[in-house]
Write a structure and sequence with these properties.
- The complex is a heterodimer of chains A (368) and B (280).
- Chain A has 368 residues and is α+β, with helices and mostly antiparallel strands.
- Chain A has 13 helices and 4 strands.
- Chain A has a 4-stranded antiparallel β-sheet with strand order 1-2-3-4.
- The longest helix of chain A has 18 residues, at 335-352.
- Chain B is an alpha/beta fold.
- Helix content of chain B is 28%, strand content 18%.
- A 7-stranded mixed β-sheet of chain B has the order 1-9-8-5-4-2-3.
- The radius of gyration of chain B is 19 Å and the shape is globular.
- Classes of the chains: A alpha+beta (368), B alpha/beta (280).
- At the A-B interface, helix 1, helix 5, helix 12 and helix 13 of A face helix 3 and strand 11 of B.
Chain lengths: 368, 280
């Protein structure tokens, strides 16, 4: 018989995994890349894996990037699957980004302001010329340093807030939701929306944010402020009654100032869009802030007509672990369903055969 | 058994949460119950809902069978069976009759199931109205009002256009006379097996975070019209391996000149018949 039943799936899977491990290692004559090298030299990849993997751990994220051969969605998936098994000891108190030790802080709405404009380690003004000196590597000359002045770096939004020119920040009066524990339902409140966006796919957020700039739900944004640096994480154990510091995070925060709303009862004021990312994730934080603001259309009484304003659409599709799973599941066997389609199609064609012996003549394709 | 993980991977609190959703689902046949679906170490779309349901109902004495496309040896079935062999250490089988829990993707076994068996379906899109109305906010309202006219219109349009309902799989059913339900992408051929089944049927959609159920001995009706009754389709052949004329068939391409072999998609059913034939 020509057909041999496909047996040995188990062995095939084992062999595929062995081959994958070999391919991951690559050319044996080239030194193996270390997790510490990934963590320190591929920092932006690690940041993105942490953000979308929804866990702050540079070493684990670097391991995931290595295991995933640099496929950052796969790396985020590995981190998510690990994260979900971890016990939850406590919820931190909200991190205080006002007291961040900023490595970078810029505002696009004021020329100068308390705390100053600090460029930090940015690619913004590099000319995008391939640097062939990096092929051989070597130590770069030391960057100039200035002593931190220790002065507080107030948020631009608080400066505007003193004059009442911008809407107040939301108050954290209730326990925030957690979409990893409770299924999302719509309409989703801003806490859940921000959680979803914070772990959403950077490319998706970027394109959606971009679409709002091009007129699909325009929100007239200005970058009030972007700051990136270390913040302390604190928990407040009930038996202590006061907060204790348990570690530091590097975060990027973006506060957008968006065009004002107002009414007969409320004087006109600017509105806010907020973005926050683990590590150095400026593009992500900015895109998130645009999308956060556009998702507030309903609450601010604006027409919600564009994709970026549709909470259900955005939140149902921003997670790249969900998206990649469902898109890629199409490569699983579907031959049972395909067979049923074949039979249905054959039946429809057989029934129609006397009426249409050949291909449809041009006229029947709706042309006149 | 893999150390460092709880029995059947999920922690007991999570299993309890899933069992609560399952109880609610059984109490309202065909109704989609939201649940706090966890991120599993297997990809969404590859059976994470079914795996979580199986993990929640599996006991140490259970015997597990996993099929994909009706077969035990398809790669994803192998992978899921291994997952539970590793994390729960339960006995696994390919024999439908021996299994107490059967996790399936895209098929219902040919042999009628018993009242001591549970069939767990992997569900990609639990919302039967999704192709007609993408917003889940809206479809929830439609379910609440039993507003299923749109689906009947879709079937009617199919008949006027093709002379038949063109849905070949994931054919919508009305459960217990109340809830419109997706039977998951099983071929319409399997739909009659849903009706008045002795086994408990559980449906898990991990990515969409929904669980639903058909309790034993529940009415499950495939949507149709009086003058266009529901009919099933199978390839009009006998199985080329066991000769069965009542089973759902796979079409295997054997050469590039139109050669085809039709054989049972339910590999255990086919093998059982061949053994019986050989013994005669």
């Amino acid at each position: 018989m020509a057909y041999v039943a496909v047996k040995g799936g188990e062995r095939a899977i084992d062999n595929a995994h062995a081959w994958l491990a070999e391919a991951r290692r690559g050319d044996a004559s080239v030194a193996e890349i270390g997790v510490d090298q990934i963590a320190s030299q591929l920092g932006r990849a690690v940041d993105r894996a942490m953000a979308e993997g929804s866990i702050y751990d540079r070493e684990l994220a670097a391991l995931a990037v290595k295991q995933a051969q640099g496929d950052l969605i796969e790396a985020a998936f590995l981190l998510r699957a690990y994260r979900t098994t971890l016990p939850r000891f406590a919820a931190s108190v909200p991190v205080d980004t006002v007291n961040m030790r900023p490595l970078r802080r810029i505002s696009a709405v004021f020329k100068d302001l308390p705390g100053g404009q600090v460029l930090g380690p940015t690619t913004d003004y590099t000319h995008r010329l391939l640097d062939f000196a990096l092929v051989d590597g070597g130590m770069p000359p030391a960057a100039a340093q200035a002593a931190p002045d220790g002065a507080p770096v107030p948020r631009v939004h608080d400066i505007l807030g003193h004059e009442g020119l911008i809407e107040p920040d939301g108050t954290a009066d209730a326990e925030p939701g957690d979409l990893t524990r409770q299924p999302l339902s719509f309409p989703a409140d801003r806490d859940l929306r921000l959680q979803a966006l914070a772990r959403g796919d950077e490319g998706f957020l970027l394109s959606l944010g971009y679409s709002t700039q091009r007129g699909y739900g325009h929100t007239h944004p200005f970058v009030g402020e972007i700051r990136m640096g270390e913040v302390a994480v604190e928990i407040e154990p009930p038996e202590l009654g006061f907060a204790i510091e348990i570690g530091d995070l590097v975060l990027t925060e973006c506060q957008m100032v968006n065009q004002f709303g107002g009414s007969k009862t409320t004087p006109a004021q600017f509105t806010r869009g907020y973005g926050l990312a683990f590590g150095q994730g400026e593009r992500r934080a900015m895109a998130m802030a645009l999308v956060d603001r556009s998702l507030r259309a309903g609450e601010l009484g604006e027409d919600a007509t564009a994709p970026g304003q549709d909470v259900e659409f955005v939140l149902s599709h921003c997670d790249n672990i969900e998206a990649t799973g469902f898109v890629e599941h199409l490569k699983l066997p579907h031959y049972v369903d395909f067979q049923s389609e074949l039979e249905t199609l054959r039946r429809i064609r057989a029934d129609a055969a006397p009426a249409h012996p050949g291909p449809l003549p041009q006229g029947e394709r709706g042309q006149t | 058994m893999t150390q460092g993980y709880n029995f059947a991977y999920l922690d007991e609190q999570t299993k309890r949460m899933i069992r609560r959703a399952l109880l609610k689902a059984v109490a309202i046949p065909g109704h989609q119950v939201p649940f706090g679906s966890r991120e599993m170490p297997l990809p969404y779309g590859w059976g994470t809902g079914g795996i979580q349901v199986t993990a929640a109902v599996l006991g140490a004495d259970d015997v597990l069978k996993v099929i994909d496309q009706g077969a035990d040896d398809t790669t994803n079935a192998v992978s899921i069976r291994r997952f539970f062999a590793r994390t729960a250490g339960v006995r696994t089988t390919t024999r439908t009759a021996e299994a107490t829990v059967i996790q399936t993707r895209h098929r219902i076994p040919e042999v009628p199931l018993r009242d001591d068996q549970i069939l767990v379906y992997q569900v990609p899109l639990p919302e039967p109205l999704a192709k007609l109305e993408p917003s889940r906010t809206e479809t929830r309202r439609m379910h609440a009002l039993a507003d299923y006219g749109a689906m009947h219109v879709k079937l009617y349009e199919d008949i006027t256009r093709y002379g038949h309902v063109s849905i070949s799989y994931d054919y919508p059913v009305l459960v217990n006379g109340r809830h419109l339900m997706s039977p998951s992408p099983i071929p319409a051929f399997d739909n009659p097996k849903l009706h008045m089944s002795a086994a408990l049927q559980l449906f898990g959609a991990g990515r969409e975070k929904r669980i639903y159920a058909i309790p034993p001995w529940t009415s499950v009706k495939s949507l149709d019209f009086e003058d266009h009754p529901f009919r099933t389709t199978r390839a009009p052949h006998a199985c080329g391996l066991c000769g069965a004329t009542d089973s759902y068939l796979d079409e295997v391409v054997t050469d590039d000149r139109g050669g085809r072999l039709f054989c049972c998609s339910d590999t255990d059913y086919c093998e059982g018949r061949r053994q019986a034939l050989a013994a005669e």
